Amino acid sequence: MAVSSSASRTTAAPPAARATAQRALARPLATLRLDGWIVAASAWFVGGLYLDGWAHNTFPSLETFFTPWHAVLYSGFLASVAVLGWAIGRQHTGERTWWQSIPAGYELSMLGAVLFIASGVADMLWHIVFGIEANVDALLSPTHLALLLGGTLFVTGPIRAEARRRAAGVDAPGWAALMPRLLALTYVLASLSFFTQYANPWGGPWASAVYQPVTSDVLTVGGRALDAVFLLQALSVAGVLLQAALLAAFVLVAVRPGRVPAGGFTLTIGLYVILTVLMRQKYDVGIQVPLAIAGILTGVAADLLNVWLRPGQSTAAALRTFGALVPAVATGATILALSTTEGVWWTIHLWAGAVVLAAATGWLLAYLATSTPVTVAEPMAP
User: Fold this and answer.
1) What is the sign of the dihedral through the CA atoms of 237, 241, 244 and 250?
2) What are the residues facing 29 on neighbouring strands?
């Protein structure tokens, strides 16, 4: 990730410049209105995903593909595809093929839609043949992972569309113009967090005192005894590191063009945490509100750090500091939320080390993004 000394700001191009840019492209530029409709329909789509996750967490005995929650998920997807199809139809003229009528940046969205539909059919057949998955199995099913890939390709259309408009010099600054890209990034974060919910401190608050093991060993069918404390601590810390990496990647990509709308992180990180907490309410009973507040405050902290450090407009050191502090704050916020409600059973060594490791994870990702590739000199000819 290249970090420049000053932000590159683009302004809305005059109509003549816009028309020239459009003629120079093989396909039309996507409008902000289209991006807005796509993120609105995608909210229905992603909301359906979390609703289906809530149903499976709450009613683990679900044994059919045809459920109201699947209906919300797939109808949200169809609504999203309908919005893009409408936009393609408007651009289809005698001068353009159907493929060329896809707005710039949405080519992969169409491929993602095809993959999602094919995976949905395959998922139904998978359930019929092998039954409904349970526990972590449901998140690692090949058809479900294919659905994740197809859905992610689709919802990221506004990100690519914004980049294409910026490259053409016809992008416009402003809160409304920046939010579709940020929301699309949030949907990616939410989707990845959904599929890693088994290792997520927001949805699996295993550090809470109510989850402290009362037995030292877990017996297995092989007759071996495993240390329950070690297993639960190891899973929890692994979840901290995994979610720290996802959150750091999200905020680092978000600030890459140097433009995040005011309050953007409060809205998006808060939304991601609230969705996770509600979906996993079976495990968060009694601490949902404190965890949700902690997530919102994490977003507020990210916004304040963005204003203070200007990570997308300043130096590589500022970006690395930003990448380290956001996941550290998120980890500390979850520990604090649990401490003020049910208490934590982790020792200070464990929870303090988890915060430090979360910061190290974010810093390493930011360092990788800002490092300069080493040029290897070609060997001299003999």
Assistant:
1) negative
2) 104
Q: Taking the CB of residue 183, how many other CB atoms lie within 10 A of it?
A: 24
DSSP 104-117: BT-HHHHHHHHHHH
Q: Which of 351, 308, 264, 316 is nearest to 1 (CA)?
A: 316
What would the two tokens of residue 29 be? 């530029």
- Give tens-digit pLDDT for 72-118: 988 999 999 999 999 999 888 777 888 889 999 999 999 999 999 99
Query: Residue 5: what pLDDT?
Result: 36
Q: Give the whole-angstrom CA distance, residue 329 versus residue 189.
A: 17
Residue 217 backbone phi and psi in degrees, to 5: -125, 150
Phi, psi torsion values for 232, nearest 5 degrees: -70, -40
CB atoms within 10 A of CB 273: 28
Q: How many Å is the maximal CA-CA distance in the chain?
A: 77
Per-residue pLDDT averaged across 285-311, rounded?
92
Distance between CA atoms of residues 92 and 102, nearest Å: 8
The answer to whether 162 and 35 have CB atoms below 8 angstroms apart is yes
**What ranges do the domains of the chain cover?**
26-174, 196-371
CB 1 within 8 A of CB 319: yes
Decide if 337 contacts 201 (C-beta within 8 A).
Answer: no
For 223, phi and psi rounded to 5 degrees? Answer: 85, 5
CB 272 within 8 A of CB 295: yes
Measured distance CA(115)–CA(147) in Å, rounded = 7
Per-residue pLDDT at 303: 96
Based on the number of CB atoms within 10 Å of its own CB, is 43 exposed (0-12), middle (13-18) or buried (19 or more)?
middle
